[in-house]
Amino acid sequence: MTEILHAWALAPAAIGACCVAADRRRARALELAAAALMMLAMLDAVSPAPVLPVVVWAAALIICAMVLAAARGARRAVPVEGASAAGSGMRGLLPGRVARSGPGSRLGSSRAADGRAMTLHTTLGLVLMAALLLGMGAHAGAGAQGHGHGLSADGFSAMLVVTAVGYAALSGAWAGRAHGWRERTQFAAMGASALLMACAAVIG
Protein backbone atom coordinates (compact mmCIF):
# COMPACT_ATOMS: atom_id res chain seq x y z
CA MET A 1 0.00 0.00 0.00
CA THR A 2 2.85 2.37 0.84
CA GLU A 3 4.46 1.76 -2.54
CA ILE A 4 1.17 2.52 -4.29
CA LEU A 5 0.81 5.81 -2.40
CA HIS A 6 4.38 6.74 -3.30
CA ALA A 7 3.68 6.05 -6.96
CA TRP A 8 0.48 8.11 -6.81
CA ALA A 9 2.41 10.95 -5.13
CA LEU A 10 5.07 10.90 -7.86
CA ALA A 11 2.50 11.14 -10.65
CA PRO A 12 1.05 14.58 -9.70
CA ALA A 13 4.55 15.82 -8.82
CA ALA A 14 5.67 14.93 -12.35
CA ILE A 15 2.62 16.65 -13.81
CA GLY A 16 3.39 19.80 -11.83
CA ALA A 17 7.00 19.76 -13.02
CA CYS A 18 5.82 19.44 -16.63
CA CYS A 19 3.56 22.46 -16.15
CA VAL A 20 6.51 24.51 -14.93
CA ALA A 21 8.66 23.41 -17.86
CA ALA A 22 5.87 24.17 -20.36
CA ASP A 23 5.30 27.72 -19.10
CA ARG A 24 7.29 29.87 -21.54
CA ARG A 25 5.67 33.18 -20.59
CA ARG A 26 8.16 33.98 -17.84
CA ALA A 27 11.52 32.79 -16.55
CA ARG A 28 10.90 30.02 -14.01
CA ALA A 29 14.32 28.38 -13.84
CA LEU A 30 14.33 28.33 -10.03
CA GLU A 31 10.85 26.80 -9.83
CA LEU A 32 11.81 24.20 -12.42
CA ALA A 33 14.94 23.35 -10.42
CA ALA A 34 12.80 23.09 -7.26
CA ALA A 35 10.33 20.75 -8.99
CA ALA A 36 13.18 18.58 -10.29
CA LEU A 37 14.77 18.46 -6.84
CA MET A 38 11.50 17.37 -5.25
CA MET A 39 11.09 14.64 -7.86
CA LEU A 40 14.62 13.35 -7.27
CA ALA A 41 14.17 13.41 -3.49
CA MET A 42 10.89 11.49 -3.71
CA LEU A 43 12.31 8.92 -6.12
CA ASP A 44 15.42 8.33 -4.01
CA ALA A 45 13.43 8.15 -0.76
CA VAL A 46 11.33 5.25 -2.05
CA SER A 47 14.20 3.50 -3.80
CA PRO A 48 15.31 0.11 -2.37
CA ALA A 49 18.89 1.43 -2.40
CA PRO A 50 18.79 5.20 -1.72
CA VAL A 51 21.69 7.25 -3.01
CA LEU A 52 21.47 9.84 -0.23
CA PRO A 53 19.98 9.79 3.29
CA VAL A 54 16.64 11.56 3.70
CA VAL A 55 18.35 14.10 5.97
CA VAL A 56 20.53 15.23 3.07
CA TRP A 57 17.54 15.52 0.73
CA ALA A 58 15.59 17.42 3.40
CA ALA A 59 18.48 19.85 3.84
CA ALA A 60 18.71 20.37 0.07
CA LEU A 61 14.97 21.09 -0.11
CA ILE A 62 15.18 23.61 2.74
CA ILE A 63 18.12 25.37 1.06
CA CYS A 64 16.19 25.48 -2.21
CA ALA A 65 13.19 26.98 -0.39
CA MET A 66 15.44 29.67 1.11
CA VAL A 67 16.86 30.50 -2.32
CA LEU A 68 13.35 30.75 -3.79
CA ALA A 69 12.22 33.00 -0.95
CA ALA A 70 15.28 35.22 -1.38
CA ALA A 71 14.72 35.45 -5.13
CA ARG A 72 11.08 36.37 -4.60
CA GLY A 73 12.11 39.08 -2.14
CA ALA A 74 14.63 40.44 -4.62
CA ARG A 75 12.01 40.59 -7.38
CA ARG A 76 9.56 42.44 -5.12
CA ALA A 77 12.30 44.95 -4.25
CA VAL A 78 12.76 45.92 -7.91
CA PRO A 79 10.85 49.18 -8.61
CA VAL A 80 7.84 48.81 -10.89
CA GLU A 81 7.19 51.48 -13.52
CA GLY A 82 4.03 53.53 -13.29
CA ALA A 83 1.15 53.09 -10.93
CA SER A 84 1.13 49.31 -11.25
CA ALA A 85 3.35 49.16 -8.17
CA ALA A 86 0.54 50.56 -6.01
CA GLY A 87 -1.41 48.12 -3.92
CA SER A 88 1.06 45.25 -4.23
CA GLY A 89 1.72 43.91 -0.68
CA MET A 90 -0.25 40.88 0.44
CA ARG A 91 -2.82 41.32 -2.33
CA GLY A 92 -0.19 40.12 -4.76
CA LEU A 93 -0.35 36.69 -3.14
CA LEU A 94 -3.95 36.21 -4.19
CA PRO A 95 -4.18 35.28 -7.86
CA GLY A 96 -7.76 36.43 -8.14
CA ARG A 97 -7.17 40.05 -7.11
CA VAL A 98 -6.06 42.27 -9.96
CA ALA A 99 -6.12 45.97 -10.61
CA ARG A 100 -9.18 47.41 -12.29
CA SER A 101 -7.75 48.92 -15.45
CA GLY A 102 -7.41 48.06 -19.13
CA PRO A 103 -7.56 44.47 -20.46
CA GLY A 104 -3.80 44.34 -21.11
CA SER A 105 -3.01 45.65 -17.65
CA ARG A 106 -5.43 43.20 -16.03
CA LEU A 107 -3.86 40.29 -17.91
CA GLY A 108 -0.35 41.34 -16.91
CA SER A 109 -1.40 41.85 -13.29
CA SER A 110 -3.12 38.46 -13.24
CA ARG A 111 -0.03 36.68 -14.51
CA ALA A 112 2.21 38.56 -12.07
CA ALA A 113 -0.09 37.63 -9.18
CA ASP A 114 -0.13 34.00 -10.31
CA GLY A 115 3.66 34.03 -10.42
CA ARG A 116 4.00 35.43 -6.91
CA ALA A 117 1.48 32.96 -5.54
CA MET A 118 3.20 30.07 -7.33
CA THR A 119 6.60 31.02 -5.93
CA LEU A 120 5.20 31.16 -2.39
CA HIS A 121 3.31 27.91 -2.95
CA THR A 122 6.45 26.16 -4.22
CA THR A 123 8.49 27.47 -1.28
CA LEU A 124 5.96 26.11 1.21
CA GLY A 125 5.86 22.83 -0.72
CA LEU A 126 9.63 22.42 -0.46
CA VAL A 127 9.54 22.91 3.31
CA LEU A 128 6.62 20.50 3.68
CA MET A 129 8.30 17.89 1.48
CA ALA A 130 11.46 18.12 3.59
CA ALA A 131 9.37 17.52 6.73
CA LEU A 132 7.60 14.59 5.06
CA LEU A 133 10.90 12.96 4.12
CA LEU A 134 12.13 13.35 7.69
CA GLY A 135 8.83 11.94 8.92
CA MET A 136 9.23 8.88 6.72
CA GLY A 137 12.73 8.33 8.09
CA ALA A 138 11.61 8.82 11.68
CA HIS A 139 8.67 6.45 11.24
CA ALA A 140 10.89 3.74 9.78
CA GLY A 141 13.50 4.18 12.52
CA ALA A 142 10.89 4.12 15.28
CA GLY A 143 9.43 0.89 13.95
CA ALA A 144 12.82 -0.75 14.33
CA GLN A 145 13.47 0.63 17.83
CA GLY A 146 10.24 -0.28 19.58
CA HIS A 147 6.89 0.86 20.90
CA GLY A 148 8.01 3.95 22.84
CA HIS A 149 9.70 5.52 19.86
CA GLY A 150 6.74 4.50 17.70
CA LEU A 151 4.35 6.63 19.74
CA SER A 152 6.55 9.69 19.31
CA ALA A 153 6.89 9.06 15.56
CA ASP A 154 3.12 8.59 15.25
CA GLY A 155 2.54 12.00 16.83
CA PHE A 156 4.95 13.61 14.38
CA SER A 157 3.28 11.80 11.48
CA ALA A 158 -0.15 13.01 12.59
CA MET A 159 1.16 16.58 12.68
CA LEU A 160 2.51 16.14 9.15
CA VAL A 161 -0.84 14.88 7.90
CA VAL A 162 -2.64 17.89 9.39
CA THR A 163 -0.09 20.21 7.77
CA ALA A 164 -0.41 18.41 4.44
CA VAL A 165 -4.20 18.69 4.57
CA GLY A 166 -3.87 22.44 5.18
CA TYR A 167 -1.42 22.75 2.29
CA ALA A 168 -3.74 20.79 0.01
CA ALA A 169 -6.67 23.04 0.98
CA LEU A 170 -4.55 26.13 0.27
CA SER A 171 -3.54 24.59 -3.06
CA GLY A 172 -7.18 24.09 -3.99
CA ALA A 173 -8.04 27.67 -3.06
CA TRP A 174 -5.18 29.06 -5.13
CA ALA A 175 -6.01 26.74 -8.03
CA GLY A 176 -9.54 28.10 -8.06
CA ARG A 177 -8.27 31.68 -8.28
CA ALA A 178 -5.50 31.12 -10.84
CA HIS A 179 -5.91 32.42 -14.39
CA GLY A 180 -4.30 29.72 -16.53
CA TRP A 181 -4.69 25.98 -16.83
CA ARG A 182 -0.98 25.43 -16.18
CA GLU A 183 -1.13 27.35 -12.91
CA ARG A 184 -4.33 25.59 -11.83
CA THR A 185 -2.86 22.20 -12.64
CA GLN A 186 0.38 22.92 -10.82
CA PHE A 187 -1.36 24.16 -7.68
CA ALA A 188 -3.63 21.10 -7.61
CA ALA A 189 -0.84 18.64 -8.47
CA MET A 190 1.50 19.84 -5.73
CA GLY A 191 -1.29 19.75 -3.15
CA ALA A 192 -2.28 16.21 -4.14
CA SER A 193 1.34 15.02 -4.11
CA ALA A 194 1.97 16.40 -0.63
CA LEU A 195 -1.22 14.83 0.72
CA LEU A 196 -0.37 11.41 -0.74
CA MET A 197 3.18 11.60 0.59
CA ALA A 198 1.78 12.38 4.06
CA CYS A 199 -0.48 9.33 3.90
CA ALA A 200 2.48 7.20 2.81
CA ALA A 201 4.57 8.53 5.69
CA VAL A 202 1.89 7.53 8.20
CA ILE A 203 1.23 4.08 6.76
CA GLY A 204 4.91 3.34 6.13
Set out the fold topology.
Blueprint: H1 2-22, H2 29-45, H3 54-77, H4 103-145, H5 147-177, H6 181-203
How would you characterize this protein structure?
It is globular and about 45 Å long. By secondary structure, it is mostly helical. It is 78% helix and 0% strand. The protein is built from six helices and no strands.
Q: What would you report as the Rg, rounded to the nearest angstrom?
A: 18 Å
Helix content class: over 70%
The helix/strand series, from N terminus to C terminus, equals HHHHHH
Question: What composes the largest sheet?
Answer: none
Give the strand content.
Answer: under 5%
Structural shape: globular
Distance between the termini: 9 Å
In terms of quaternary structure, what is this?
Answer: single chain
- Low-confidence residue ranges: 79-90, 146-151
Average pLDDT over all residues: 77
The chain-level structural class is: mainly alpha
Question: How many runs of DSSP E, i.e. beta strands?
Answer: 0
Q: How many helices?
A: 6
